[in-house]
Every structure is written in C-alpha cells, then in structure tokens.
Amino acid sequence: MNDVEQLDTARPEIRPAGGRRTTKVAVVGAGAVGSTMAYAALMRGSARTVALYDINKAKVEAEALDLAHGIQFMPMAEVVGSDDVAVCTDADVIMITAGAKQKPGQTRIDLAEATIGLVSKILPELLAVAPDATYVMVTNPVDIVTYAALKISGLPPTQLFGSGTVLDSSRLRYLIAEHCGVAVQNVHAYMAGEHGDSEIPLWSSASIGGVPLLDWTGIEGRGPLTSADRDEIAHEVVNSAYRIIEGKGATNYAVALAGSRIIEAVLNDENRVLPVSTLLDDYYGISDICLSVPSIVGRHGCTDRLAVPLSPVEIKGLQHSANSLRSVARKFGY
C-alpha cells in the first residue's frame, strides 16, 4: 500500500444519518478573529457545519446565535457554538485562533509564552474528540506556536501547520496590484519566512500575468517597480498589521478570509499553493523550524514544499528569519 492509500484510510468521511457526506470546520476561539473566521467560512460556503468553541460560554453562544440568524442569506449551512470541546467532535478542519491578544506596540514574539501555555492545554482536548482533523494554527506568533504544537501533539507536519504568510502574501499582492494598475488576481507573489518582522518578499519568483515582476516595464504611464518601490511595499506589508491594531485593536477581516481559503484548499482537495507555516527539512539548508514557504495544501494537509527560485539575498533573508525564530523557540524549550 502506498502513502496516498494509507492517508485515505486514515481520514474517514463524516456522514450524517442520511448517508450523504458533509464537512465540518471547528474554530477555536470566539474573539475578533475566530468569530469573523466563522462568518467568512459561512459566507463563502466553505463547510456544511461551522462550530465555534470558546471557554466563554455567554460569548460563544451569542456569536453562534448571531451568525445563525443570518443563515437564510448564506449558502446552506449549520452553525453551532459551545464552551464544551465536544462541539469540535469529528471536525475535518480545526482552526485555532485562541490566544493572547496583541496590544499596540507589542510584537508577535511577545505573545509566545502565554499562547503556548494555552495551546498546550487545549490541544490534547481537541485531539481526543477530533484525532483525524487537519489542524491549522492561526494564533500568533504563529510560527513558534505551530512548532510548539507539533511537539506537544506529536502530529505529523502534514496534519498540523500554521496559517503563516497567506495573509501577508495577500497584502503584498494588493500593494503590487495597486502600484502597477492591474487586478490583484493576476499578481503572483509570496511573502516567506516568519509571519512577522523578519519576513521577506520573494521578488525573484513574483510575476504579473506571466511576466516576471523584475522585468515588468509598466502600463498606461505607470512605470516599473523600482528597488525603492519594492522596499516601500515590503515595509508596508510588515508594518500594516501594527497600523491596523493601533487603529482598531485587532486584525480580523483579511485574516478570516485567508483562513477560509486554507479551509477550502483542504476540504476541496485543491492541492493549492499557499505559503503556510510548516516544519521544514533541508529547505535551502533550513531544518527543524516552522516558517512559511510556498507549499501544497489539499485534503491530506500540507504535503509538499515548492523549491521556488531564490536569489542569494532571499536565501540569506530566509535563513535569517529561520535563525530568529529558532532562537525564540529555544527560549521556550522547543
């Protein structure tokens, strides 16, 4: 039996009484990110059932009820919320958004200790009710938390990974599209490394409509992306979350949409290329740390990492990001 066959038997289908296959997503944490992610998943029709789990009984039940009142205007689905972990039973995908809230001026790394402590408590409880789920860590600092969660759970890196720089790459594409005057859907570019201050844009592999970005000459009077333009865009990507948090207290809309895209890649077995945070093994010399690189995401989780072309500067930047994360992970005993 090959690996694919073994994986197929390891992920049983969930079938209701009528025998028709359904899908279930559980979102852990009913705060700004978690509740918005549930909303985004429902609006996009990402799953047939969306479950919200939070220790705050009044909050999670209120969020679920508010969402349920709008089901008439969404693709057909069911939403449930509870402070009992059993609400996550047999979920296909579990999105973990619960964690310490990032305050203005606070880095994601500052959140590590409190969030790892929380994950170490809730992850075994979740595994007891949904051992076959694909686990996606969303809470920050996502790379450190993902690495710790793998150690805590013993799950393979295919089954547990982080949301990584999926959102950061969306920010990058938006800014490139805005500068160049093209549709964001025609921009292909990735942020890689840490979901945080040491992340880097992969300019060498970026393109617009098949044209390498570094060869882009501009359209309709818009010039190419100069080195200064690229530096400005990269700076904006890295710092945009801080600006949003300072202005409104939390980022929630875009990260929820990014999360729902990961959910769909898994449930629809899309084998979509997404820059999720995953455990690397000799990726451009980087091993034993979780960070984001373009990866294949489908029904069996995160199965492959793409060795996209990198310039020497990008390789150095990725290795620097890995070393920064590794030093933080070691501080917490991982």
Automatic annotation (TrEMBL):
GO terms for biological process: glycolytic process; lactate metabolic process. Residues 23-162 form the Lactate/malate dehydrogenase N-terminal domain. Residues 165-328 form the Lactate/malate dehydrogenase C-terminal domain. It is found in: Cytoplasm. NAD(+) binds at G29, A30, G31, A32, V33, G34, D54, K59, G99, A100, V138, T139, N140, S163. Pathway: Fermentation; pyruvate fermentation to lactate; (S)-lactate from pyruvate: step 1/1. The modification Phosphotyrosine is found at Y242. GO terms for cellular component: cytoplasm. Substrate binds at Q102, R108, N140, P141, V142, D143, D168, S169, S170, R171, T251. Its EC number is 1.1.1.27. Allosterically activated by fructose 1,6-bisphosphate (FBP). Pfam families: Ldh_1_C, Ldh_1_N. Beta-D-fructose 1,6-bisphosphate binds at R173, H188. The active site is at H195. GO terms for molecular function: L-lactate dehydrogenase (NAD+) activity. Keywords: Allosteric enzyme, Cytoplasm, NAD, Oxidoreductase, Phosphoprotein. The keyword Metal-binding does not apply. It catalyses: (S)-lactate + NAD(+) = pyruvate + NADH + H(+). Belongs to the LDH/MDH superfamily. LDH family. Homotetramer. Catalyzes the conversion of lactate to pyruvate. This is L-lactate dehydrogenase. It comes from Sanguibacter suaedae. The gene is ldh.
